[in-house]
Structure formats: structure tokens, C-alpha cells
Amino acid sequence: MFSFGLGLFMSFWQPKSVLQLLLLGFLIVVAPLGLAIMHTVQTLGDLSEKNRAVTAKVISLNRQGQGLQRDLLDLERRGRQYQALKNDELLDLFQREREMILVKLNELELLVEKSPSVLAQLRQQLVSLEPGRQNPDVLIEQFSQVADARFAASEWLKDEVDFRITAHAQESDRIKDSLLLMVLLMVLATLSLMLFFGYWINRPIQNIVEKIERLGHGDLGKAITVSGPQEIRDVGLQLEWLRSRLDKIDQQKLQFLRHMSHELKTPLANLREGSDLLAEEVLGGLTRQQQEVVTIVQRNSIELQRLIENLLDYTHLSDQVLNPEPVIITELASALLQNYRMSIESKGLRMTTQLDDSEIMVDKQKLKVALDNLISNAVNYTPENGEIEITGGIDRGLLDLSVANSGSAIPEQEREHLFKPFYQGSSVRRGPIKGSGIGLSVAQESIEAQGGSLQLVDHASLAVCFRLICPLQEQ
Residue 1 has what pLDDT? Predict the structure, then answer.
């Protein structure tokens, strides 16, 4: 309950600095222990006073009891002396000693707070003693009764002392147990407060760490707000300024890529049209060497067009809208492979294709982008006279495709970075144009936008294999 109230207070009050928060936390954490110490000191002081009072009363009871016993023996001796000598002075002395004993009985009764029956009986017997008026036999019988009463009073006095000592010991044990319980509760409260303030102090710092990690992963869309002491909030404001700057730079980068891609597509289209006209010998016949040059221009222009389209696709990765349409995988794969026919033939690659020819419903453009990048990756990284294998089909409402190629395996330390934008691995690209490093990133984003996945997996015989899993969509 206390921690809840403290948490509610801290939610409305914000310290001005980390030092202020630390000092406040220290004071609040130490407060239960301070209260426990003060209560313990006060309790021990009260117990000490009570111990002195009980000790003094026990000593007084012992002294009164012992004195009473002596006085009663002296009184009995004085009465017997008077009976033997019949001296009036002895009678007066007997009367005075009896009055003194009665006074001591009154003091003893006041000391025990509640007069027991043995003291009342002893008083009655003392009052009835009259050595001058009673015969010796009766007086001896009375003194015998006084002796019995004296013995009973002595036993009662011992019991009274033992009772007071025992009661005081039990009270001391009870206080000790209550102090131990209080100390245990205070220790638990202190530990709870330590954990609470540890969390309260660490939370803003952990929040900043999370914001920095979010910036590191490229999440720039959400504004950064950090609560806590003023110093921490100032750091949060600087992080928000950094986020806005990074977001602005990222938007400028995407805008630059879009503009550059569109600017490059127009002259590239003219270049491809011109190379196609030369290849078709519309302007006249070509020699063998000229035909080879035209083929090289066509092949490189196709690869350059694919790289430009990758840049365009990368700038639109945030567009998650799906446009499902019927697709026949065999036709899509054949159309894409036709673009790489010249590269495949020039490198002498062996192609193996095993695909389901049924019609499926997927986002054709996104699937085409992903499959095109996987085929391009395989063609460019497969050595001459190597092998490429494309297999797949429909399994329980999922499109399962694999594109594998021979060559060098991807090192283990590079696999976790393989799908990051603009990452260039150590594998040697054998295509005519160096890649941009965004092909696999674009392919993965295109498949994940449809709820699927793209992963690097092991193959039974080939070095590299990418597995594409895409859920089928509804029309």
C-alpha cells in the first residue's frame, strides 16, 4: 500500500535532477530503518525502566518479608517472656512491637497492591493476642496459629516474588518477539523501497537505451518522449532532435533515390530500344563482332534496369497494400529467366526447374520482385559451368519456392547481415555490374509484406539456397 502511494506520488512529481532523485530515494529507503531503530531504543528504555521497577519491588518484598519474619519471632519471644516474668515493661514492649508489626503489614499490603487472605488472617491473629488477659495455654495455642500464619505468609511471599519475576520475563520475551517482527517488517519494507527506487532510477535510463536501439534499427516514425529527472528529459529532447534529423535525412535519401531512378529510366529505355533495333538489324546487317558488342550492351542494360527497379522498389518498401491476382508460377519464372538467357548461355550454366504449373492468387508484382532478385543473385554469383536449381509448389495453402546455386557458401558470420539494405558480403559477384546490396532486402520485404518469409537454408548438394514461403491470398 505504501509503495502504491509512493508510486502515485512519483507519477505526479518529477525530480529536477538525478542527484535529487538519488538523495530522495536514499532518505526514503533509510526512513523505515530509522523508525525501527528509534522504536527499538524507546522500547528498550521502557523495558529497562520496568526492569528496575520490578527489581526494586522484588527486593522490597524480600526485605519486608524477612523483617516481618524476624519481628514475629521477636514478638513471640517477648510474649513468652512476659508470661514467665509477669513484668509490665515487657507487656508494654510487646504492645509496641505488635503495633510496629501491624504497620509493616499495612506497608506490605500496599506494596503488593492486593491484600491476600494470609496477611488478613495474620493481622487478625496478631490483634487477638493479649498476653495479660489470657491463660498460658490459650496464648501458646494462639502463638502456634501465628507461626502457621507466618509460615503461610512466607510461602505466599516466595510465590509472589516468583510470579513477578516470571511475568516480567514473559513480558520481556513478548517485547523481544515484537521487536524481531518489527525489524523483519522494516527490512522487507526497506528492500521493497530499494527495489522500487532502483526501478524508478533505472527506468529513464533503460527508456533512453530502448530509444537509441530503436533509432539504430531505423525506426524513425514515432516521436521520442522520455520521462524522469530534468537531466534525463534533456537527453530525451536531444534524442528527439536526432530522430527528426535522421528522419529528414532518410526522407531526403528516399527522395533522391526516387528522382535518380526515374531520371535514369528514361535514357536507359532509349538505350535498350536502340540496342534492340541494332540486334534486329533494322538499320542493316551486323558482323559477328558487332553482334557480340550489341549482345553485351543488351545484357548490361537489362541488368542496369533491374538495379534501377530495385532502387524504386526499395523506396516503396513502406507500401504494404496487397494487390492479389492470378499467377502461374511456371510462366512467371520462365519470363524472368528469359531476361537472363544471355548471361546463362555465356557462362554455360545448367538450369533445373521443377515448379507447379497450377494457378495461384498472390500479389504478382511483389512476388515477381522477390523471385527476380533471387534469380539475379543466383546467376551473378554462380561460377561458369555452375548449376542453378529452381524448385517449388503449393503445400497447405502456401507457396514454397527454393532457388539454389553452386559456388562458394556464404560465411556463417555474414548470414545475419545478409538481408540488410546495402550490405555487401565477401562473396565474389561474377556479373558485369557490381550490385547495390539491396536486392535481398527488397526480396525479403516484398515477401514479408504478404505474410511470408525468405530465409537462407541448407541444400543437399548446392552451396547456397534461398527458401521463399508465401501465403496464398484471397481474390
Answer: 47
